[in-house]
Specification:
Length: about 70
């Protein structure tokens, strides 16, 4: 178990922020067949109930016409 109190995925969190700034999340949610509310929650680090999955990342990559920001953040 780790005693770290800092977020170990800060690069991915930053990539998510950049991706959200560059795209209309509600529009992308519609494009991938997901509720806008759920996708917004998946991008919210405070929401522990929803997380982006590998399938989500791939779908977002295609819906955003090849934006690699999220993959770069990983």
């Amino acid at each position: 178990m780790s005693n770290q109190r800092i977020h170990s995925h800060s690069h991915f969190a930053g990539a998510c922020d950049l991706f959200k700034q560059a795209h209309n999340i509600s529009h992308l949610a519609e494009s991938i067949g997901m509720s806008s509310h759920v996708l917004h929650n998946k991008f919210n680090p405070a929401c522990e109930r929803h997380n982006l999955t590998a399938q989500d990342l791939i779908a977002l990559y295609h819906a955003s016409e090849g934006d690699e920001t999220l993959f770069d953040g990983l």
